[in-house]
Write a structure and sequence with these properties.
This protein has 18 helices and 14 strands. The protein has 387 residues and is of the alpha/beta class.
């Protein structure tokens, strides 16, 4: 049995970043192996099997979002789930047999890490997926819980194997293990695949659309403010284009700061819009209908929206540093100092006005090969020893 920690994907229909990839891991493991998804109870500190509502969150997040239509109904449903969770509890002694695997693709900045010491004495294999070390790389972020995150990074050394999503993330993990005095455990790099199951869509260049898309949660380290400054400077010079921001709210302070700027620009008549939750079909349509995308985030563990955009044949403006550079290096990207609004504005102006540059990047994006979930699943089976 594979026990899969699906806590974040089971708790909410949000479908960004970690939740999206946890759902993909579950779908492609469950198609080939016996899998029991679990959710951590944060208050009572145990793992439990999922309720029917949590199963829907995991398997069909957009349907779950449509069903959870009212704040009161969402609260009541969550309360009922929490109340019934002790009946679904999985005792530590029952969790892992000699042939079982505990796979933790979730972020665990919580008391789950204290349970790992007990799992270490259990038979079976304990494996985690490590997404990034952002709270340690960029100090002082809102809601980053740096002390707890450092404990999480150290606790990863209690497991049998850690899968890192990029070479930069693997380097960071070993560096912090050394800094924290942890004996390193075996690690490997498995980059994320394109997070779509359907065939790659046929696309054509969309140079004349003059619509930009940025897919990212509203967090200050994602550089929304730098992007908005760059776009404002272009609008002030008479440039004609629209900007769509797609992504859920994040830390309250960060989201409030970003939305204040978005709303101020909108009041001035600037064509900037924010969409918080959209389905996969709506996301695909957003990619198809734009000219290109921007991804000015300072640092990433991987940079999944870059892959999504290129898969849809849309060039990307992004940085060249670290894991972002690992993804961008395959073609289709115009790299820039994403922390400099003037450099970012110049790059946007280039792709808006230079048809030859746009076509070259479009052709590079269409020529890129992409890993599928089937490719990822085979590699994951090998790492887990179940190939």
């Amino acid at each position: 049995m594979i026990y899969l920690d699906a806590t974040s994907a089971a708790a909410s229909p949000a479908n960004m970043g970690v939740q999206r990839t946890v759902r993909g891991v579950h779908a492609h493991l469950a198609a080939r192996h016996p899998v029991t998804p679990l959710r951590w109870d944060f208050d009572r500190r145990f793992y439990a099997r999922l309720s029917p509502r949590e199963e829907t969150h995991l398997r069909s997040p957009f349907a779950a979002h449509a069903a959870d239509s009212g704040r009161v109904s969402r609260w009541l449903a969550a309360w009922r789930d929490a109340r019934s969770r002790p009946r679904r509890r999985v005792a530590p002694a029952d969790l892992l047999g000699p042939d079982d695997i505990l796979l933790i693709p979730d972020l665990c900045w919580d008391h789950r890490i204290h349970a790992w010491a007990g799992f270490a004495a259990r038979p079976g294999r304990k494996v985690a997926i490590f997404h990034d070390a952002m709270p340690l790389r960029i100090r002082g972020q809102a809601d980053s819980h740096e002390k707890l995150f450092a404990e999480y990074v150290a606790a990863l050394a209690q497991l049998d194997f850690v899968i890192c999503i990029s070479h930069e993330v693997e380097d960071d993990l070993h560096r912090y293990w050394k800094e924290f005095g942890c004996a390193p455990k075996p690690t490997g790099v498995l980059p994320w695949p394109v997070p779509f199951d359907e065939a790659r869509p046929a696309t054509s260049p969309s140079f004349g659309t003059r619509r930009l898309v940025y897919v990212s949660r509203l967090k200050l380290r994602k550089n929304h403010l730098v992007l908005l400054e760059a776009c404002e400077s272009l609008w002030n010079r008479g440039a004609s284009f629209a900007l769509d921001l797609i992504g859920i709210a994040d830390a309250w302070r960060d989201t409030r700061t970003i939305l204040r700027r978005v709303r101020a620009l909108a009041r001035q008549g600037r064509p900037v819009h924010w969409r918080q939750r959209i389905s996969d079909a709506e996301l695909a349509e957003a990619y198809r209908s734009c000219s290109f995308t921007v991804f000015p985030s300072r640092l990433e563990g991987f940079g999944l929206p870059i892959i999504e955009s290129l898969w849809h044949g849309r060039p990307v403006i992004c940085g060249s540093n670290g894991a972002i550079g690992e993804v961008a290096s395959g073609g289709g990207c115009l790299t820039v100092d994403q922390n400099n609004p003037h450099a970012l504005a110049a790059a946007i102006a280039s792709l808006l006005n230079d048809a030859a540059l746009y076509r070259r990047l479009y052709d590079e994006a269409r020529a890129r090969p992409f890993r599928s979930w089937d490719d990822y699943g085979r590699d994951l089976d090998r790492v887990l020893g179940i190939a």
